[in-house]
């Protein structure tokens, strides 16, 4: 009951602070709260080249693995938003078993048109790769990417870039990975006002995740909720501060960290968690969450470190 009251107080405070942030403006454009069509609808027509903003050279790259699934389309939307937020280029990659099938090229053209229609300033390239094992191919292709984005399907069914591939990519890529899980999509306009939630346990890996969350929050213009799975038992839930211009709220997680983080994901724009080695010699409270959260979260998940 107390957690619900705290969440209501924080929500009211966010509304008082000014409503939708930079990320919210962009996500609402994509979600249809303003003018963007349903992500599961047919792809929008490509704007004439003369009316699109000129592509600019960027220092970073967001790479998104795509297939013909619905969640893959949503992953492209989130990848395009990240590219636009950071001023980076976007690269679409699809993997098929043989080079004779034209479906891959058709898919890449459709998704490229989709990005151009709503984010004309984002430079987009695409690549069709042939390989029998999608996960290793995608990992090799994403080696130089600043952010790798994958969609994570719900349920047991998989596709070319389905559940098992997303799981392998999450823990095989050394850089940040954004796993897009959106069971209730498209979301309402309030989605853009939600904070980033980051789980911390005092470990060096968690501190890396915390700094990543602050950097992401600065470009989004949103708040951060720090979820403490260990602490000195002080009442952190009432503590608020600002880190480099980012409003930060603290909350102590009690009980099972995995269940608490899944519950928190229902009111976050994204959850940030560090990769923790989950073995006999490196047991941490967040170790299981690193593996389970990308499969059960109710919002996108950043895995870093």
Give a short overview:
Pfam families: Usp. The chain has nine helices and eleven strands.
Main attributes of the structure:
305 residues; Rossmann fold; eleven-stranded mixed sheet; 9 helices; 37% helix; Rossmann-like_a/b/a_fold; Nucleotide-binding universal stress UspA family protein; Universal_stress_UspA
Describe the structure.
This protein is of the alpha/beta class and 305 residues long. The chain folds into 2 domains: 128 residues, 3-Layer(aba) Sandwich (Rossmann fold), CATH 3.40.50.12370; 123 residues, HUPs (Rossmann fold). The chain has 9 helices and 11 strands. Strands 3-2-1-4-5-11-10-6-7-9-8 form an 11-stranded mixed β-sheet, with helices on both faces. Helix 2 packs antiparallel against helix 3, helix 5 packs across helix 6 and helix 8 runs parallel beside helix 9. The longest helix has 17 residues. 44% of the residues are buried. About 14% of the residues have low confidence. This is Nucleotide-binding universal stress UspA family protein. It holds the Pfam family Usp.
Break the fold down into its secondary structure elements and pairings.
Elements: H1 2-17, H2 22-31, E1 61-66, H3 70-86, E2 89-96, H4 103-118, E3 124-130, H5 134-141, E4 147-151, H6 163-172, E5 177-180, E6 196-200, H7 204-220, E7 224-228, E8 240-243, E9 246-252, H8 257-265, E10 270-274, H9 287-296, E11 301-304
Parallel strand pairs: 1-2, 1-4, 2-3, 4-5, 6-7, 6-10, 7-9, 10-11
Antiparallel strand pairs: 5-11, 8-9
């Amino acid at each position: 009951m107390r957690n619900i009251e705290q969440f209501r107080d924080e929500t009211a405070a966010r509304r008082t602070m000014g409503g939708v942030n930079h990320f919210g403006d962009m996500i609402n454009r994509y979600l249809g709260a303003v003018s963007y069509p349903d992500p599961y609808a047919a792809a929008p027509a490509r704007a004439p080249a003369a009316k699109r903003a000129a592509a600019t050279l960027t220092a970073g790259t967001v790479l998104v693995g795509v297939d013909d699934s619905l969640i893959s389309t949503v992953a492209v939307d989130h990848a395009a938003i990240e590219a636009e937020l950071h001023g980076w280029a976007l690269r679409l990659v699809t993997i098929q078993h043989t080079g004779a099938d034209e479906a891959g090229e058709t898919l890449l053209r459709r998704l490229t048109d989709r990005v151009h229609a709503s984010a004309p300033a984002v430079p987009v390239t695409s690549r069709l790769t042939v390989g029998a094992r999608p996960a290793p191919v995608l990992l090799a292709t994403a080696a130089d990417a600043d952010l790798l984005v994958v969609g994570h399907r719900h349920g047991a069914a998989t596709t070319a870039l389905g559940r098992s591939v997303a799981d392998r990519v999450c823990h095989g890529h050394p850089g940040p990975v954004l796993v897009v899980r959106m069971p209730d999509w498209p979301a309402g306009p309030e989605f853009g006002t939600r904070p980033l939630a980051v789980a911390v346990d005092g470990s060096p890996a968690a501190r890396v995740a915390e700094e990543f969350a602050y950097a992401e929050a600065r470009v989004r213009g949103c708040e951060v909720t720090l979820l403490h799975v260990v602490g000195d038992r002080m009442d952190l839930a009432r503590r608020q501060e600002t880190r480099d211009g980012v409003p930060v709220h603290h909350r102590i997680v009690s009980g099972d960290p995995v269940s608490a983080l899944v519950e928190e994901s229902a009111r976050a724009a994204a959850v940030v968690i560090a990769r923790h080695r989950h073995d006999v010699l490196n047991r941490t409270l967040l170790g299981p969450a690193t593996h389970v959260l990308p499969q059960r979260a109710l919002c996108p998940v950043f895995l870093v470190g």
